[in-house]
Amino acid sequence: MKLTSKGRYAVMALVDLARFDGINPVSLRDISLxxxxxxxxxxxxxxxLRKKEIVQSVRGNQGGYVLxxxxxxxxxxxxxxxxxxxxxxxxxxxxxxxxxxGKSTKCLTHNLWDELENHINNFFExxxxxxxxxxxxxxxx
Length: 141
Fold this sequence. Notes:
This protein is mainly alpha-helical.
């Protein structure tokens, strides 16, 4: 189980954006330079984030992106959902009787991995952009 670069970069970019939220709109070019993420890739990510109303674009000479909500209201699960990132520890569907191995029953450790997935998703549901900004500031001190 791992997060794709799309999910990780979406979180990185939004934390970067949230640090400057309320000052001026932030350009994707600036985020790209600070975070080392391809501008083309950021444009794809922010298109999805805009559609899910996590960010909004501001046009004009001083244009860029701003958060659509307060940083404390944007949970990591919202971000992952917006960029179609799924945190799964098993390949089978929870409601299915069949297991990931193609057999008619689930494997002996299925419940372990299923419980881990629940813990991970609960963790992401509790963490907001604001938490990540605070964690970053505290580590610098």
